[in-house]
Amino acid sequence: MTNVDQPDLLSPAQRRERVVEWQVPAPVAKVAMGLSGMDAMLGIRDGRLPPPPFAKLIGFVMAVVEPGRIVMELEPREDLENTIGLLHGATAAALIDTAMGCAISTRLESGQGSVTLDLKMTFLRPLSVRSGLISAEGKVIKLGRQTSYTEGFVRDGKGALAVHATATFSMIGNNFTGN
Question: Alpha-carbon distance 64 to 141, whole Å?
Answer without folding.
Answer: 17
